Amino acid sequence: MDYQHRCQTGIPLDLPVGQVICVGRNYAAHAVELNNPIPSEPVLFMKPPSAIQSLGERLSVVERFMPVHYETELAVLITQPLFDASESQVRAALGGMTLALDLTRREEQSRLKQKGLPWERAKAFAGSAIVGAFLPVPESWEAVTFSLSMNGEQRQQGQTGQMLMPVIALIQHISQTFWLNPGDIVLTGTPEGVGALAEGDKLSMTLNGYPIGQTHVVLQSCASFIQGKSI
Ligand code: ZN
């Protein structure tokens, strides 16, 4: 089914589905686990709207994209246009939060990095952004916690206080280069504990203690992936 932004009660939000702006290496421990230096400025990249799938019962991955890694990230929904935005403009433009999986073809990413090529093939492929239903914005963006369990075992635990660049400053920084528009989503980086997905893996995620979604990995041929999109 085609993706639409939804709130936790399942009601569709009256916003278009926009681009997904992502930040790499926003948690020091994750940069270290992939042998990357801690960046002096955020690493930014994007996924197109067509890459988004809802966090639902099934997490579809096209088989030929494997190996694919999960990265669990706090996702923030933009509800007003932002460019070169002030802190208060950013705060007023945030309309919800959820968790997203920034799916990554890690071997492909390493190959592209070595050649100095753009990351889209590894980061922006079809189905690469898994987005949950949105919760209201938190009282403090500095104290949001989240976790990912896989097959009953905790794999990732995040706390926005550990971010190298916190949420509001990060979105201000992004808006210095890009227009952000209503319906866009910002993925704020992953904590350590990323790893590979396999057929049948069961994933469950919590955001500030609230269960945001449960899903299981289904590897698909291109033909069944296409069919699934039109159901
Ligand atoms: Zn990521």
What are the SSEs and their pairings?
Layout lengths: L19 E5 L3 H6 L9 E5 L4 E3 L3 E5 L6 E2 L1 E7 L8 H7 E9 L3 H10 L4 H4 L5 E3 L13 E6 L2 E7 L7 H9 L9 E3 L7 E2 L5 E6 L2 E11 L1 H9 L1
Parallel strand pairs: 1-11, 3-8, 4-14
Antiparallel strand pairs: 1-2, 5-12, 6-7, 6-11, 7-8, 9-10, 9-13, 13-14
Report on this model:
This protein has 6 helices and 14 strands. By secondary structure, it is of the alpha+beta class. The protein has one domain: Fumarylacetoacetase-like, C-terminal domain (Fumarylacetoacetate hydrolase, domain 2, Alpha-Beta Complex), CATH 3.90.850. The protein has a 7-stranded mixed β-sheet with strand order 2-1-11-6-7-8-3. A 5-stranded mixed β-sheet has the order 4-14-13-9-10. A two-stranded antiparallel sheet has the order 5-12. A hairpin with a 2-residue loop joins strand 9 and strand 10. The chain is globular. The chain starts with 19 loop residues before the first strand and ends with a helix. The model has no long low-confidence stretch (mean pLDDT 95).
CATH architecture: Alpha-Beta Complex
Q: Report the end-to-end length measured between terminal Cα atoms.
A: 5 Å
What is the CATH T-level topology?
A: Fumarylacetoacetate hydrolase, domain 2
Strand content: 25-35%
- Note poorly predicted spans: none
Question: What brief labels describe this structure?
Answer:
single chain; 231 residues; alpha+beta; Fumarylacetoacetate hydrolase, domain 2; 14 strands; binds zinc ion
